[in-house]
Write a structure and sequence with these properties.
Helix content is 47%, strand content 15%. It is an alpha/beta fold and 278 residues long. It has two domains: 217 residues, 2-enoyl-CoA Hydratase, Chain A, domain 1 (Alpha-Beta Complex), CATH 3.90.226; 48 residues, Lyase 2-enoyl-coa Hydratase, Chain  A, domain 2. The two termini are 20 Å apart.
């Protein structure tokens, strides 16, 4: 939490003096599931400093909330998940001014490193930094209105929040290059075809579908959920032999946990497990 608080202080340079940034991200708890709403619908939920700051604060809080096991993120309004970064906010910066913003702790890394599963529920525009935010999540659920794109090339820029790295690991270099070099948007069915979206659902049902998936995940041990996420992430970064060794150690960690003992005992005794997250 100290690290997150320190970063929050740094991010305040992007928040207008006297502004109340708290309402730009809302949180509702449904059992062991936290539903996070990005709440700038008039700006298509564009990622300005206030939204980034508050989302980092919220994710840091949820990461240590023992009652929360899975997180769902979606955008408010009818038109967008996140339509990208707030270009007006950085348009006047020099390279020297942009450099510390680029290298500080960012929302993409906070999502990716969250110890709990994070699901993106996507509708409408999911572009630029919004696409990178969705890709940083563990699973993406999209409705039929979703439109994805890395449009930075249209501005003479390149993706800077994972659009050349996480996206490549998710859909492969060919598809990542197609998106980032063309600046074209792809629709929900194409995103599902190339593996950018794991679940494609009917229009307007994305949040319900994501929450339903989150509830199914949240039935299980928080220890196991964390270790699965860590192990799969490792697969994208390590050679196979190293990844298999990592998996063995995480299996033994789960095997030795209280939840691991409880799950095995419940199976043998033919009863539902009572996982405590230990």
């Amino acid at each position: 939490m100290k690290q997150g608080a320190g970063q929050a202080d740094a991010d305040r340079t992007d928040v207008p003096s006297g502004s109340d940034h708290r309402d730009v991200v809302r949180v509702a708890r449904e059992g062991h599931v936290a539903v996070v709403t990005l709440n700038r619908p008039d700006k298509l939920n564009a990622l300005n400093g206030a939204l980034r700051l508050r989302l980092i604060e919220v994710l840091d809080e949820l990461a240590v909330d023992e009652e929360v096991r899975v997180i769902v993120i979606h955008g408010a309004g009818a038109k967008a998940f996140v339509a990208g970064a707030d270009v007006a906010e950085f348009a006047g910066r020099s390279v020297d001014e942009q450099r510390p913003v680029t290298y500080r702790r960012r929302v993409y890394e906070v999502i990716a490193s969250c110890p709990k599963p994070v699901i993106a529920a996507v509708h409408g525009f999911c572009l630029g930094g919004g696409c990178e935010l969705a890709v940083a999540c563990d699973v993406r659920v999209a409705d039929a209105t979703a439109r994805f794109g890395q449009l930075e090339v249209r501005l003479g820029l390149i993706p800077g929040g994972g659009g050349t790295q996480r996206l490549t690991r998710l859909v492969g270099p060919g598809q990542a290059l197609r998106m980032a070099l063309s600046g074209d948007m792809i629709d929900a069915s194409e995103a599902h075809r190339i593996g950018l979206v794991e679940m494609l659902v009917d229009e307007g049902t994305h949040v319900d579908a994501a929450v339903g998936l989150a509830r199914r995940m949240a039935r299980w041990s928080p220890v196991a959920l964390r270790l699965v996420k860590e192990s799969v992430r490792q697969a994208a970064e390590a050679p196979l032999a190293d990844g298999l060794d990592y998996e063995k150690e995480r299996f033994l960690e789960a095997f030795g946990s209280e939840d691991g003992r409880e799950g095995v005992a419940a199976f043998v005794e033919k009863r539902d497990p009572d996982f405590k997250g230990r």
